[in-house]
Amino acid sequence: MDLDQPPVVRISVDPGQRPSTRAWPMTVPAVAQLVREGLDLPKGVTFLVGENGSGKSTIVEAVAMAYGLSPEGGSTQGHHSTRSTESPLGSAMTLRRGIGAGRWGFFLRAETMHGWYTFSEQTGGGPAYHEMSHGESFLEVLRTRFDSPGFYCLDEPEAALSFSSTLALIAALGRVVADGGQVLCATHSPVLAAMPGATILEVGDWGLRRTTWDELELVQHWQAYLDSPGRYLRHVLD
Q1: Strands 207-211 and 199-204: what pairing?
Q2: β-strands 105-109, 151-155: how paired?
Q3: Where in the chain are the domains?
């Protein structure tokens, strides 16, 4: 028996609790595939990469909820909510936990971090996040919360980060992995997705498929755009 397991070994959905196939989010191919087949989650970092509406954030949010994290972000030790918008997927999801793995976790959800900053300041007397820039506050969360071998969910964390700060995020994730932690991250960033050793799942009309950084449509589009931005912009502006 493997005793060196990550916090989450497998994601599945109870057949008796599956959401209606005719309603969102089951109309999203990646979600439907996950519900149908489940997903083995490897050690280290797993990136979900895809277009807007492809289901990557819905999946990360549901996994975070199934792990016991607040859908609006934060750790396993405190929950807050402003307005419930999450899908029913999280409540139907079952996680197979790793043997001997810790229970600590944190969900960094870019679009709701403002609310979590307020919650954190009111309940824990932590850093004055609201007095920092958007990017500085994200980096402070990485410095103070991503510091133990737990399970970390991130939803588009690059939204607030510059190029150099995104590299700092990669360094933080590297420290998490070195300590035995596990990461599930939805991203649009070709910089972040290039992290060595990471597993990449491309999300789209096909569902979920494992791929490499070089084969990502995201990377190919960015490379073509940076090589010749005018080819793209003349179509947009015309």
Answers
A1: antiparallel
A2: parallel
A3: 8-237
**Quick check: 202 and 183 in contact, CB under 8 A?**
no
CATH architecture of 8-237: 3-Layer(aba) Sandwich (3.40)
| Residue-level length of the chain | 238
Query: What is the pTM assigned to this prediction?
Result: 0.90
H/E stretch holding 226? helix 217-227
Q: What is the mean pLDDT of residues 173-181?
A: 92
Partners of 187 in beta bridges: 49
Burial of 20 (0-12, 13-18, 19+ CB in 10 A): exposed
Sheet bearing 74-75, strands edge to edge: 74-75, 105-109, 151-155, 182-187, 44-50, 199-204, 207-211
* pLDDT tens digits, one per residue of 31-40: 999 999 999 9
In this structure, are residues 210 and 199 in contact, taking their beta carbons and an 8 Å threshold? yes
